[in-house]
Amino acid sequence: MLDFEQIAKECKLFDETDAAVNNISALDDEYSKEDLVLIYNYILSVSQNPDILMNVIRLADRFRFKSTMSVLLDLLLMKYDNINSDEKFVNVRSMCAKAIANYKDTDAVTPLLYCLNNKVEHYRVRLACADALGKIGDKYAVAPLIEVVKDESEKSVYLRESAASALGLLGDMRAIDPLVSILETKQGLMNKFTFLKERVIEALAKLRLDDNERVYHALKASLCDDSKQVRINAIEALMESSHPKAEETIKTCLQDKDEEVQKNALIALYNIVGKDILDEVLSLPIYQQSLKDEAKALMEEYE
């Protein structure tokens, strides 16, 4: 039977951090996988040192025993009286959420939602929980994530970005309207939310809404966005769709003001129609020389 207190003493668990981290890592040479899990669970339950906790979370993630997930959830929720939610534990709890996501276990959804919906919670913890919910893939998380995406009073736009990405991973059609609504918001009001729009477009691309006219028009309008990355994402989303007007819509971007956008449009069209678009770009004088050079390079690469 394992003597946890003796192991803690030998590892200098409550002494020097660097020594403890190294000693815990060295336990691999002495114990079986099953015993290591028990030791990790014990350390996660008693340690108050963020460096030690983060190291043990990484070590335990190699095995992913469900008993460890339970301990990680307790740590995420800060149920231990001897650990508070100070800034120094934010990274620990965020790492807990990331490790929990790796279990793909729906039992974790409710605790993750609890943290996500707690507006006084640190935004980085909430962000990690949103990411975890997307990776776990439980449809129960869809409605709460939609509420986060829609919440214009949410102080952290990063959280809304993560929620949008999670909705793309979940692939639930209920996300369509709130995601498209963000793209339909007037340009002047959305300049500071460029990254949110990027994540929204990426999520819509994952939903593969080939026959949804509202989505198509939102993506088409995004091709005029001030942000070149938003325009590039919209090109990629249109390429992934099978909308009958995708080709002609992307084609307008071959004369975009930005060369990178032009090149992305060319690559997208090449993926859709093949070599014909390269011949067209090379033969017509309306296209810039830089785009012709890209067309020539593509032709040489794939011939």
Topology of this structure?
Elements: H1 4-10, H2 17-25, H3 33-46, H4 50-60, H5 66-77, H6 90-101, H7 109-117, H8 123-136, H9 142-150, H10 157-170, H11 176-184, H12 187-190, H13 194-207, H14 213-222, H15 228-240, H16 246-251, H17 259-273, H18 276-283, H19 289-302
Helix pairs in contact: 2-4, 3-4, 3-5, 4-6, 5-6, 6-8, 7-8, 8-10, 9-10, 10-13, 11-13, 11-14, 13-15, 14-15, 15-17, 17-19, 18-19
Sheet with the most strands?
A: none
Kindly state the number of beta strands. Answer: 0
Q: In terms of structural class, how would the helical and strand content be classed?
A: mainly alpha
Sum up the overall morphology in one term: elongated
How large is the share of residues in beta strands? under 5%
CA radius of gyration is 25 Å
Summed over residues and divided by their number, the pLDDT gives a mean of 91
Distance between the ends: 66 Å
Q: Order of helices and strands, N to C?
A: HHHHHHHHHHHHHHHHHHH
Helix content bin: 55-70%
Unreliable sequence segments: 80-84
- Our count of helices gives 19
How would you describe this structure to a colleague?
With 303 residues, this protein is an all-alpha fold. It has a domain at 1-78. It is built from 19 helices and no strands. It has helices spanning 4-10, 17-25, 33-46, 50-60, 66-77, 90-101, 109-117, 123-136, 142-150, 157-170, 176-184, 187-190, 194-207, 213-222, 228-240, 246-251, 259-273, 276-283, 289-302. The longest helix has 15 residues, at 259-273. The chain is elongated, with a radius of gyration of 25 Å. It starts with a helix and ends with a helix.
